[in-house]
Design goal:
Elements: H1 2-10, H2 20-32, E1 43-48, E2 54-59, H3 84-90, E3 101-107, H4 111-118, E4 122-129, H5 135-142, E5 146-152, E6 155-164, E7 167-174
Parallel strand pairs: 3-4, 4-5
Antiparallel strand pairs: 1-2, 1-3, 5-6, 6-7
Helix pairs in contact: 4-5
The structure holds zinc ion (2 copies).
Length: 176
């Protein structure tokens, strides 16, 4: 029967297996879909250092009780939505205590979220899409927080700040 043949074909098929890093980034991408922001949908996940425990989740949007949309959808960076990273930090119980934490985000952090990250126990930030401003990533690096850019499935590059042919900028090298 063709039905049985097609079912059998799925058994043992070699689907690409995501690393745990990839898994949490994809969770952040699913969380981002909850966002009602008209400018961008961003999701963030905070885990412990072992990548086993989720400590907080967040997506960007207006504050609880306020209209479920942007205040100023036309204003880049100032639409009035709380950012995903900040919401994840607010919802992570005991974020200030315990060991090191990891933040996974669909996008690189803005400067305000970077400052919130610096005031937390997060020591590693992993993001998928670059944010239009690099000041957040640069500030994290200057403060000793490791930053990893994942441009594609199961691909992770560690970011450094240094000299490029055109001056100074963000550099990256494969981590895994
Ligand atoms: Zn918004
Ligand atoms: Zn932000």
């Amino acid at each position: 029967m063709s039905d049985a043949t097609e079912g059998d074909a799925l058994v043992g098929a070699s689907l690409p297996r995501p690393t745990k890093w990839e898994m949490w980034l994809q969770v952040a991408e699913v969380v981002a879909k909850r966002s009602t922001c008209l400018r961008n949908q961003v999701g963030a996940v905070i885990t412990d250092w072992s990548l086993l425990q989720v400590l907080g989740l967040g997506y960007n949007g207006n504050a609880r009780g306020l209209p479920n949309t942007c205040d100023h959808p036309e204003a880049p960076g100032m639409c009035g939505c709380l950012h995903a990273e900040l919401n994840a930090l607010l919802k992570a119980p005991g974020i200030g205590g315990g060991g090191r934490k990891i933040l996974f985000s669909t996008h690189g952090p803005c400067l305000t979220c970077t400052k919130a990250i610096l005031n937390s126990q997060i020591q590693l930030v992993i993001y998928r899409a670059a944010y239009r401003e690099t000041i957040g990533v640069r500030t994290l690096l200057e403060q000793g927080i490791r930053v990893v850019h994942s441009r594609a499935f199961n691909t992770f590059d560690e970011i450094t700040w240094g000299g490029t042919p055109s001056g100074y900028g963000l550099l990256s090298k494969p981590l895994l």
